Amino acid sequence: MKDKIIIKRSDFIFAKRLLWKMRNPRTRFDEKKFMKEGKDYLFNYADENAGPLDPNRRAFLKGVLVVLGVAAVASAVPLVNSLNPSVVTLKKFPWMIITDADGNPIEASAVQVNDPTIMLFQYPMLGDITFLINMGDENNKPVKIPPTSVLIPQTGKTYLFPGGVGPYDSIVAYSAICQHLGCEPPEIHFYPPQYFKPNMPTPDFIPPSAYQAGVSAGAKSIIHCDCHGSTYDPWKGAAVVTGPTVRPLPYVQLYWDSTTDYLYAVSMNVHAPPIMDHTSDLEGAAYLDTYDESTGCPKLILSKGQKPQNCYTPLTSDGNTFAGGSG
Ligand code: FES
Predict the structure, then answer these.
(1) 77 and 97 fall within a common domain
(2) How far, in Å, is the centroid of ligand 1 from the Cα of 40?
(3) Domain containing 71: what range?
(4) Is residue 319 part of a domain?
(5) Digits of tens for pLDDT over the chain (327 positions)?
(6) Which residue of 17, 165, 223, 292 has the fewest CB atoms within a 10 Å radius of its CB?
(7) Looking at 27, 60, 84, which one is the last position of a domain?
(8) Residue 181 CA: which ligand 1 atom is closest?
(9) 269 in Cβ contact with 313 (< 8 Å)
(10) Could you tell me which residue ranges the Rieske domain spans (predicted)?
(11) What is the position in ligand 1's atom list of the atom closest to the CA of 229?
């Protein structure tokens, strides 16, 4: 096992951003090219995708290469997990409008139903990658996802998942960081119902073990992690279908503003297990770029008329937030 690298918070944010870009299908890091061309490819890639590569950042990346090794960086998996950042804390869960990669608010009606490529956003901290899924049936008709009680196999306790939001109550958001050992997309995938019907031959791209587990559990679609086979049911609050994970994927509570069709991430459930590797969902390595430390609120808020002093979401006794309204 290689040593951890102790780094400055600004470098950690840079590394998080870099890793995010490396895994984004639109800006995918070309591992083969990197193995062939070496560090120059990495430097150029980082410069283009994660911000200007000043001498300090260049030295930081060189250090990462030396300590982690080229193969580890190429696979991108251990890069940020091997760093040792300081922890920052949120006072409460802020509201955050969900935007596309260009910073434009996403409209709920435009979120493709059953999209297996999945939309991702980060909440509540930088690097907390989250699936945004518009759940549908095998004909791609949106399906209402009702509230449900979710079992935590690790403790035997349960918590309440409040169900989907949007025009059809079909849009849900779950952490995209596997609760077993932290694998992230593309290792963890969403498989919609049309690829996952009982009694059909197992499609090549679904691991047979995941397919069988889902069929046995009566799941209509699944989220499956290729790293060690954990499977989750996105129709039922991302409850555990198969281990080795013993914890469901945490959900992010969404709010849909029907007047604008915009979606907001507003909270997480403090009674659910936190995101993998976190002691609390209110702690993390770095604030989101959109978070304003001076007001403690997101910069890109809010419902019309909402003021910074009420940009937080009060929790109810079951760990959930309000059921609508602008706070
Ligand atoms: S990290 Fe996902 S199953 Fe192990």
Answers:
(1) no
(2) 32
(3) 5-84
(4) no
(5) 444 455 665 676 677 778 777 877 667 788 888 888 888 888 888 888 777 777 777 888 887 777 777 777 777 666 666 666 667 888 778 778 888 777 778 899 999 999 877 678 888 888 888 999 999 998 899 999 999 999 999 999 999 999 999 999 999 999 998 998 888 887 888 888 877 665 666 666 677 777 777 778 778 888 998 888 899 999 999 999 988 999 999 999 998 888 888 888 888 998 899 998 788 898 887 777 766 666 656 555 444 444 444 455 554 555 445 444 333
(6) 292
(7) 84
(8) 1
(9) no
(10) 169-263
(11) 3
- Both tokens of residue 244? 């080795």
Same-domain check for residues 29 and 169: no
* Residues within 6 Å of ligand 1 by CB: 178, 180-183, 225, 227-230, 244-245
Name the residue of 183, 209, 222 whose CB sits within 8 Å of the most ligand 1 atoms, as the mutation to test its pocket: 183
Query: Domain check: are 186 and 151 in the same one?
Result: yes
Please check whether residue 10 lies inside any domain of the structure.
Answer: yes
Q: Based on the domain organization, do 265 and 176 belong to the same domain?
A: yes
Residue with CA closest to ligand 1 atom 1: 181
Residues 110 and 204 in one domain: yes
The alpha carbon of 327 and the centre of ligand 1 are apart by a number of angstroms equal to 37
Number of folded domains that form the chain: 2
pTM: predicted TM-score of the whole model, two decimal places: 0.72
Say which amino acid occupies 231. T
Looking at residue 322, its amino acid is F
Residue spans of beta strands (DSSP E) within the chain? 5-6, 83-84, 88-89, 96-97, 119-122, 129-134, 148-152, 157-161, 171-175, 188-191, 222-225, 231-233, 239-242, 252-257, 262-268, 283-284, 291-292, 297-298
